[in-house]
């Protein structure tokens, strides 16, 4: 599922409204995971939930990008999901990869 | 020094390779784009058609041979190949149109052709930690870079290639 919100959504600002972030693990493959949050939740909380769902620890060199723009997600950790989706990544589909060695 | 790759049970390797290849084409982001395809050479070898995208949007198709003799304890062997007159495949040379030019990648990555391996043979090296050749070339990855069975699949290999075969990193074909 790539849409950000349930179809029967209440008006914006309703505390019962949920937002769904879809994350592709581009190391392991498989179906993407989805994380349900509130619009007022911080991006950081979704990132934390992502690591928990992937059973992974944050590591230097991890990459987390917005699929539609390619922009780094970590830099927006302090923003609310609502603001982040509005300004930076409206589809809320992310791509995760851990560090890659080589050169 | 990292442990040297060795072949695994071919039946297990073939089954895992098949499962993960189909998974890539079912779920992955790159394979949703037009131009991707794959076909099998044998149980342990597949050719993936990888559409490189130029900055202006034009598509250059490439052929990537994946070999699963050590999969998935180790990543697949990975090489850019070109078709031959007798309907076989050979590694693309450095001046071949089937060998890409890539620069300024967003993660550690390199292309070397030819590369002299410690055993003396020369061939391509797609130098990143999700190819078998990386582990055959005296590299010593950090723990977070290292291929981990059960954590990485060939989706990791192919999505990294898809990334570098896109703007602004993909610079076009080497030969005319």
What does this structure look like?
- The complex is a heterodimer of chains A (103) and B (176).
- Chain A is of the alpha+beta class and 103 residues long.
- Chain A has helices at 43-54, 81-87, and strands at residues 19-25, 33-37, 63-66, 93-97.
- Helices cover 18% and strands 20% of the residues of chain A.
- A 4-stranded mixed beta sheet of chain A has the order 2-1-4-3, with helices on one face.
- In chain A, a hairpin with a 7-residue loop joins strand 1 and strand 2 (33-37).
- With 176 residues, chain B is α+β, with helices and mostly antiparallel strands.
- In chain B, 19% of the residues lie in helices and 31% in strands.
- Chain B contains 3 helices and 9 strands, in the order H-E-E-E-E-E-E-E-E-H-H-E.
- In chain B, the strands form 3 sheets. A 5-stranded antiparallel beta sheet of chain B has the order 1-2-3-4-5, with no helix packed on it. In chain B, strands 6-9 form a two-stranded antiparallel ribbon. A two-stranded antiparallel ribbon of chain B has the order 7-8.
- Classes of the chains: A alpha+beta (103), B alpha+beta (176).
- Chains A and B meet through loops of A and helix 1 and helix 3 of B.
